[in-house]
Amino acid sequence: MAAIDLCRPVGRIVCVTALAAGLIAQATAAAQSNANAAAPAAQEPPASSATAQLPAFEVVSIKPNKSGSMESRVMFTPDGISVSGLTVHMLLREALGVSDSQITGEPGWLGSSRFDIEAKVAADDVKKLDTLKPKDRWAMLLPVFEDRFGLKFHSETKDLTQYVLLVAKGGLKMKEAAPDQTYANGLKTPDGKPGRGGMMRVGPGELVGQSIPVSNLVRFLSFQFHGPVLDKTGLTGNYDMNMTWTPDESEGMMMHAPDGGPPSAGNPAPPPSSGPSIFTALEEQLGLKLEAHKEPGTVIVIDHIDQPSAN
User: Fold this and answer.
1) What is the spatial distance between Cα 267 and Cα 176, in angstroms, rounded to a whole number?
2) Tens-digit pLDDT profile for the chain (311 aa)?
3) Do the beta carbons of residue 268 and residue 161 sit within 8 Å?
């Protein structure tokens, strides 16, 4: 598979390249199992027993990133994962399958110190990687954190602001993608060829997706609001998405209600700006809306973590 580029704001612009990653997943037609659930529920971290069944990395190199650049890069390679310039917080978030607001007890360096990681499985396990879902490939990093960072954590339940993504009253405005469609004038692969389905690019105030499931949009929104976003649209196909909005100065940070407190239940209040907020853009351009609710959810409490041991 070809690598695909995703640029999204985390402070300054961060460019990420991934293969079927949680940051930008390869498009699938999998049905959203939580679409008809009666009430929102927080994302659950992967169970230790499930992680134990995954292939283990045979070779792992971890080095501090001293480039001074805010650019980050992730690539799922045929035999493992290659990371450049990501913080441990970002990596833990993906490995645990939670949002930013679901991790607590972190020392400050987890969100500031950046690392380069190269991890590869044994030759006998390469074929197994092709059968894994993106969340499972991320979860393979958990034993690395436990071994090299001395990670220890436990889970607790607390009230969380959780967003629900719904189809707006005016109806869906996204176009369902045709199977095997090639986008001659759309996103390009790294070698400059027209991209097919499963590609997504995100930058400040812009999101473009080619034949992607709603789950990709949901993951992006969870980054934006640092909280769980649950898909209640009932949409199971792949869609073309093109959305633009005026970024708030805190884009990539948690967005707040006008009084500075957490978003209230119902439709979240848009941040003040001269153009459409991301909430307005979702409804007017994609035919979707976000509602916020306070619900009990799972949080991960970091009990212990050290700077990584030497290679």
Assistant:
1) 26
2) 333 333 333 332 233 333 333 333 333 333 333 333 333 344 444 444 456 689 999 999 999 998 887 777 788 889 999 998 999 998 998 899 888 888 999 999 999 999 999 999 999 999 999 888 888 999 999 999 999 999 999 999 998 888 999 999 999 999 999 888 888 888 877 677 787 778 888 878 899 999 999 988 998 898 788 778 889 999 999 999 999 999 865 454 333 322 233 333 344 444 444 679 999 999 999 999 999 988 888 899 999 999 987 77
3) no
Query: Cα 65–305–159 angle (5° rounding)?
Result: 110
Residues 6+ apart with CB under 8 A from 66: none
Strands of 88-223, DSSP E: 103-104, 114-121, 152-167, 175-176, 183-188, 194-195, 199-203, 206-213
For residue 53, which amino acid is it? Q
SS3 content of the chain, % helix, strand, coil (to 5): 20, 35, 45
Residues 6+ apart with CB under 8 A from 131: none
Q: Is 74 exposed, middle or buried (0-12, 13-18, 19+ CB in 10 A)?
A: buried
For 112, the token pair is 């500031």
